[in-house]
Input
Amino acid sequence: MKNANKRIMTRYAESLSEIYEHINGIVKEITEEEDCEGNPVMWFRGHARADYHLEPNIFRGAKYSYNDAETYSNNHLREEYRFQSFMSRNYDNVDYRMPQTVIEWQEVMQHFFAKTRLMDWTESLTVALEFALESFITPVKDLEISERCRIADPVVWVLQPMKLNKAVYGSFIEESQEKDWELIRKTLTTDDASSLAEQIGRELQKEEQRGIYYDIKDDNDKNINTMVGLSSLEIIRMAYKGREMEALRNFEINPFFYLLLRYFSDGIPVQADSLPPLAIIHPYHSQRIRMQKGVFTVFPYYIPNKQMKKIQEECERYSLFGMEYMPKCIQCLHSIHILNPERVAKELMQTGAKRGNIYPEMQVVSQDMENVAK
Output
């Protein structure tokens, strides 16, 4: 895959204007690499600490144990218990339309601090900066916040979501073929799984078919191109309930979307390094998510290899599945390290940034008001 060995270049900034300059540089780099015009789609994520990995919170420090068939794990169980508990206790607290599927509930869970396989990003650089510099923007400077300011080492990550999803597509037609279409075959519930998997793989592999199943070739659609909504795909899948295999044989259903549902929504385990996370959009289910302009990467359930398990045993804090370590993700990532967070926070607040922008609850809005008054 092109640029598979690319390293993440860390940029450094001491002011808000330098951050904007770096963003312009990243835009130029993307447009030159992809030979395109206009503004490329970029997602952002702010960390108060640069050593905080790009890894879902349910994976952090987790031990991985699978059944003999490697079809279900302790992490499946951890996630499912959390879903059951969160849904039972928050069913009446959902502000907007009620979530219809498990993956849709997980989006709500992620934004309200439950552990999931989702990792939240934002379509707004300002929101990402507000998260990275939250301790400096917080009006109430108690001992905990003061300590966070003291040890702050903030960074803003920039993700190319379309390029990431291109890597997902490539995994199904490149690496899967090398292993007799294993990634596709594992998703099929039929006696002729091997032959059907090859049929689907060959179909997706045809260059002329990519414009049908994955990559729209019309520039008028470039702002929605490759932007996947798993919760929306779940609703589409309901139309084929009971005849999914027949629909796949006849290519009535988009085979690429079917594969995404099986791995990223249903949670079929996959060998480490076989499939990168998927960039997804989701319905807004609360004012908080809307204000944060939330988007996500969702991770499949990874099966660690022997070397990974050994590393985990020797170093508990090591990130097995941080995106910054995955070759297929590295080529989609950029980072901006903030060297003077206090200055950047002040400059950001002068543009109207406040905690109420990302946490629009009454108490936070009141604290923002008092912060301005000071």
